[in-house]
Amino acid sequence: MKPYDWKKAENCFGGANIYEYRLAIKTDEVLITGLSTAGTVKYHRNFPRPFFQANLSDGTLVKGVIADSVIKVSFPQVDWEGSKKQFESFLTDLINRHPGRER
Length: 103
Hints:
about 100 residues, alpha+beta, TATA-Binding Protein, 6-stranded antiparallel β-sheet, 2 helices, 6 strands
């Protein structure tokens, strides 16, 4: 099984580099802690649907509902293709090392 599938997200902002990733695992503490190694993470646990937001060091923004398998990722305008490639490599590594990952 692939670690994730992705598609360009529908949005009202032309030229925005926002992608939706459907992961092979659910977002949990292990995955979110892994994201925090590349930037800062904010939790919003008191919401009806608890979610997180990760700001990575290159300006990439990752958002997702905790315990869901879909995340949305917004890449910076400058070298967004390079940021996307780097993020996907990082994400693949995180998922492949995840203890809940089916192999």
